Amino acid sequence: MNITALAQGTELTVSTLIDNMPVNIKTHAISVMDDALLVTPLKYHGKPIPAATQATAIAVLPPRNMKVSYHLHSIVPYKNWNDTYYLIKGSEIITEIDNQRKAERYVVNALGKAVINHVNTTSAIIYDMSIRGMSLLLGKNAYANEGDMIRLTFKPEGYTKAFEITLKVVRNFKIGTYEAVGCKMRGIDSQLMTYIMYIKKQKDEIRRVQSQSRVLVRDESESA
Question: What pTM value is reported for the model?
């Protein structure tokens, strides 16, 4: 997840060196400015910290408090609103566990509406979804290129309010005869995270039941 995709209010702990001493400072995401994440003031002993080019940060994503680590390339003071805020840039630190989680997608097959580059509106089927992105089957004659932005709206069964998600296309492919796109999400709020965790729980339960069924069939055949 790009650091600029963090939702407003996301808690971060920034770790940096001040006078050659490691310090940890808590902050919160505000918005995106100039391809950087604007965060609340970073202060040490009551004073704004200096600019830095080497630091790390850990973001805590609700509702399950999942942690995502970042290597920060820059921390730049931004004076406004009678205080010193900060613009931070960085890339996610990917571990082997992260790679396994990244590949974990859940088939959804939900119908939604997609607006491509704020202009072209089409129906879309959400084929699968993860906490990082999703695959969409676009409606007839609709097409999106790598780098295009999609505003997706969909309302799962049983929900009273629709989700609205900003996506960026990262690859094109086909599912059968349908044009499909793989997308990254530009931020994820707690409601959407809860929905994805609900889908995961359903899939895990199905796998558990199927596993038990296979065991029962094998035991019965052995007793015969």
Answer: 0.49
